[in-house]
Amino acid sequence: MTVELSCDVLVIGGGTAGSMAAITAAEAGRDVLLLEKAHVRHSGALAMGMDGVNNAVIPGKARPEDYVAEITRANDGIVNQRTIMQTATRGFEMVQRLERYGVKFEKDSFGDYHVRQVHRSGSYVLPMPEGKDVKKVLYRVMRERRLRERLRIENRVMPVRVLVSEGRAVGAAGFNTRTGEFVTVSAGAVILATGASGRLGLPASGYLYGTYENPTNAGDGYSMAYHAGAELSGIECFQINPLIKDYNGPACAYVGNPFGAYQVNALGERFVDCDYWSGQMMAEVAAEIASARGPIYLKTTHLPEESISALEGILHSTERPSRGTFHSGRGHDYRTHDIEMHISEIGLCGGHSASGVWVDENGCTTVPGLYAAGDLACVPHNYMIGAFVFGDLAGAHAAENFVAGQPLPAEQVAEAAELIFRHSRNPDGPPQPQVEYKLRRFVNDYVAPPKTATKLSLALEAFDRMSAEIAEMGARSPHELMRCVEVSFIRDCAEMAAASSLMRDESRWGLYHSRVDLPERDDTRWFHHLNLRKNAAGEMEFIKRPVAEYLVPVDGIAHRAGSVEFLGVRSVSAASVSASSAAEEVVVESGRVLEVLSLVDSQPTLAVLEPYLVDPDVTVRRAAVSVLTEAVPAGFEFALVRAMADEGVRDAAAAGLRELVEVVPASDALREALERSPARAVALEVLWALKLGTAELYAAGLESADIEVRLAAVRGLVALREDALLAVAAADPARELRVQVAKGITDVGVLVALSGDSDVLVRAAALEAAGRVGWPPALHERAAGLIDDPAWEVRVGVARALDDPQLVAGLLDDPNLDVRKAAVRALERWRTDPGVVLALKRALDDTDADVRAYARMALG
Ligand SMILES: Cc1cc2nc3c(=O)[nH]c(=O)nc-3n(C[C@H](O)[C@H](O)[C@H](O)COP(=O)(O)OP(=O)(O)OC[C@H]3O[C@@H](n4cnc5c(N)ncnc54)[C@H](O)[C@@H]3O)c2cc1C
């Protein structure tokens, strides 16, 4: 049976970009259909691991031009700056839009975005304290009444081909991965948002789905765009990321570095010379692992307890809950063991590198009516915020320019059906996991860097040969059909990756395109994008496209004008036709927990949920709190505050309130309810976020025996600039609290007193505050007296507090690399002083990579 659907705008993939595209197109009044092969509520890269926005250009913290230049440098010049500029200039607006939806971004005590510096230049990383909830927030927005009427979501439906008629995208064909029903969609415009090609290489663990990427991202969109005739670009520029050894989670230097963690080799030396996360950085990482100085580690053992527990709080929850279990299974702890790192398998991903569908600054592909957004589009280093921005752009453009009601091409519909159902005709054929393993082993053996022409040619032979094996695979359920079709997508991506890598006969982008047989970069011949597409004869053809003129000039990169060149074709195999279907049994569970959970999609009122919130069974109450948090009916904030009085669900209710803090309406009644709440730390946090807290209330919080309450009180007092009350907190017995006071207070007398504290970290924090309060002479004096303090943390503070370049330059000989790094960075403010210039030149030969790099930057 075929299910026939129609819409103005079809969005394929309900992750980051797809969700935003669907919301924008529906808000523009269009009839939108969103198809997701998993379930939108928890699908895609966004569902887990979003510790922060990697590339937020926040006014006052960074400039779009600097960001564009940074990304151009990280990509060896091969970028369309117009697309990157969209992310740079629209990212901030998107952050604010997401905040209105309820997503939380880290703020300092004064309510400003707390952007962190992770790379050596530019501050672009904006932490998301509750990053694990973003998908939930988006799903909630999509189901608001104003959108529900225009935005239809079909979960577990997987398109396999975009349908094209007279050169225009007119719809898609696919199937339901639970029932096996064949589905066709007639659409006025199609937006591909299916994420990265994440199951390309085989991870070191050997597990097919234990990949760096979300495993449902098998490269479907790359393949669909290719078969629709769209151009793809930079497919030879692979994604390779730093990982934890033996565990397929990111190493999380982005998270660890702002806390003071850093990458070292087995000798304890920092070795990464490159400034921005790029293929060059990955080349340095791979070379270090392979050298006599390997393996490499994320160094954490030098960090204080509070930094380690904060890191664990992020990495073992927001990042991946299994991560803590993995470390403890090995008997490892960040306090006692630095984390061994490795590199990931290869993948294709515009968001992390550059390989993707070729798009303009509105997400339009080269096929009219077809758009691409997110990781599968070629907008280098676009990450999450870029996926949101381009989802929005594509949604808006498609809503304006759709052409609905075109007839669907019968031949392509039949081919799509054959691509899916050929496997159910042959249930005893080779099982998909075996064929997929074999295919991806060839990817590791012949396509992953270091690349050579011989290996790449062998890869192409293997992938051609494997077309027949893939067609023979057997499936016994709709789920297995999905897996089989995914293998055909992986094969297409592997073929494109090998063919492009063979075509670009030079080396570029560090490890991403390291041709060891042609190790030099050749800007004369290859200052070009390498694009590929399927031509009318079904062949893969290659085109060199010139790099568009830069909007922002970039130091160290000479833009070269060029012209379009057609480079010829390589032949590929095609599919044949027939149809079949199968159904899968759906297991239905029952019970009161399921009863309340099933209410979530019907937008229940508070009155409907109340009986569950007071149910005698705590698991029902907990489920009710989760539905309350997701459905947010009118009055939800009071219900959550009430639930915080119930010990059985207190944590869940507090987490819900924290999660929703951006959408909680501030009112006196809420303030009063929070003031009475027994969950005081959360109550103070929420009062601070809503700007409802008073100095009196926070002062009372300082009396609490619970350190979390006292910390929340200090945060509130810093926001209100209540120095007199903070001075009281400066005598608190807990070191964490005194550190927070030192980080927020402006009273120099208190800072000087804290710089003599018995605790190393308090002394360090007090000295580090010097720049914030204008380098007062009293702190300089203290720093000069502490120059030989045995604790390196204090000497880092000394470097930042001294107001004399000669004394600071003396610290360049310190045995500790972090002290030398702090000294180099402090010297930047006297960079024109001849004595400082000499000192910085000396630092260019330091053994530490960070010291060398910052000296280089300071010298310009
Ligand atoms: C482990 C990890 C950590 C990251 N951390 C950060 C971070 O901290 N900060 C940051 O800025 N960026 C981060 N990123 C990058 C960021 O998450 C991505 O750039 C962004 O989410 C990509 O969005 P997308 O819409 O392209 O893909 P996704 O959000 O992955 O969505 C793709 C969706 O398409 C669906 N799909 C695939 N094929 C089909 C099909 N045939 N039919 C229907 N549906 C289909 C998938 O199921 C999925 O839901 C991280 C990425 C990863 C993998």
Automatic annotation (TrEMBL):
Keywords for this protein: Flavoprotein, Oxidoreductase
Superkingdom of the source species: Bacteria
Domain Fumarate reductase/succinate dehydrogenase flavoprotein-like C-terminal: 438-549
Name used for this protein in its record: Fumarate reductase/succinate dehydrogenase flavoprotein-like FrdA
SMART domains named in the record: EZ_HEAT
Coiled coil: none
Residue stretches making up the FAD-dependent oxidoreductase 2 FAD-binding domain: 8-379
InterPro entries, alphabetized: ARM-like, ARM-type_fold, FAD-dep_OxRdtase_2_FAD-bd, FAD/NAD-bd_sf, Fum_R/Succ_DH_flav-like_C_sf, Fum_Rdtase/Succ_DH_flav-like_C, PBS_lyase_HEAT, SdhA/FrdA/AprA
Flavoprotein recorded as keyword: yes
Source species: Lentzea flava
